[in-house]
Amino acid sequence: MASEETTSVLVIDDNPIRASIIEEGLRHSGEMRVHLASDMHGIAATIEALQPDVIVIDLGNPNRDMLENAFQLSRAVKKPIAMFVDHSDAAATAAAIEAGVSAYVVDGLKPQRIKTILEMAVGRFNAFAKMERELQIARDALTERKLIERAKTILMNQRNIDEGQAYRIMRSAAMNQNRRLAEIAESLITAAALLDDKT
Length: 199
Known about the structure:
By secondary structure, the protein is of the alpha/beta class.
């Protein structure tokens, strides 16, 4: 969490007694801004308006529809989510993990534990987000390498030159135009496709 002074927490719970337990635990944990929502209806607009740092969903003893709604929210919202349930089974736990719930707590709604659980949720969310960013960077790098290799092949075939010469031509164009090598490669591939269409 950013800091205790600035942490904003949205608590979603249709049971006012359970909500008050969570609110008490949060308020005793430091100066957090706690917002309460009584159900999932219109919750996307509420999240958009409040921009909470963490979302707490307390479902008590949920049915499958309640769980699925909560999991859909978790997939859609790029925020740490801590979910409390009274009972669970292996399938529901696996579905929570798959949906990206940062903390899925069974029978653990005690005020003194809430701060620790939220910190764990934020930590897991941040670690997962970092892994996703690194994976996307690796995917982008692989895509760019493939573009560059394809563009080099096109140049080699068109000009009857070797790989080193093709690479130097592309690198020189990138430097002269102040563009990335992958952008030059993409332009070459597009131009070659257009020329092929005309023939």
